[in-house]
Design a protein that fits this description.
This protein has 172 residues and is of the alpha+beta class. It is built from four helices and eight strands. The chain has one domain (4-171): Chorismate lyase (3-Layer(aba) Sandwich). 21% of the residues lie in helices and 36% in strands. The strands form two sheets. A six-stranded antiparallel sheet has the order 2-3-4-7-6-5, with helices on one face. A hairpin with a 2-residue loop joins strand 2 and strand 3.
Length: 172
């Protein structure tokens, strides 16, 4: 018996928007393959690191999400900082690889028009995927690392609504 189950795309989007687990893992199960991060921009703003990235399929032919992060280097583990900031590795993958304990606190989630898309500095942003004329699902949350106890990363992720057009085999 297979552990692959076909699910309604709206149920999957709702899981993405409400889950406090690693989003990358959910998305990889959603698309059925490993995803890769491409960092578009990293810059220091005051004492925080601003990072803009996309998560895409292996061949880079489909962008799954467009993400913005504000990282406080003083409030994240040093090894995590080295991998995500200095080596441009993905946050979710690196947390899993290093087995770093963290908790997520969802601050906001829902659906936005493309003209309502903003980054974490409240600047209007153009997404690297074309959502068409539909609303864009998003989730904004913070990551707190257990050994530090204060939020060290704030993220907002915009999910490509065209995920609905992919064959969906969600592994439970």
């Amino acid at each position: 018996m297979s552990d692959q189950v076909v699910m309604d795309p709206i149920i999957l989007f709702n899981k993405l928007l409400t889950a406090e687990e690693k989003t990358t893992n959910i998305l990889e199960n959603f698309v059925g393959e490993q995803l890769f991060v491409h960092v578009i921009l990293q810059k220091i703003t005051e004492k925080l690191m601003f990072r803009e990235s996309i998560l895409h399929t292996g061949l880079g032919d489909f962008i799954v999400s467009h993400n913005f992060a504000l990282i406080d280097p003083a409030l994240i583990p040093n090894l995590l900082y080295e991998k995500i900031v200095l080596k441009n590795e993905g946050i979710g993958k690196t947390l899993s690889q290093l087995n770093i304990e963290s908790s997520r606190c969802i601050r906001n989630s829902g659906w936005r028009k493309k003209e309502e898309v903003v980054d974490l500095l409240n600047n209007y942003s153009y997404l690297r995927f074309d959502p068409g004329e539909v609303l864009i699902p998003f989730k904004e949350y913070t990551l707190t690392f257990h050994d530090i106890g204060m939020p060290g990363i704030r993220l907002i992720e915009y999910f490509n609504p065209q995920l609905i057009r992919l064959p969906i085999n969600f592994k439970l």
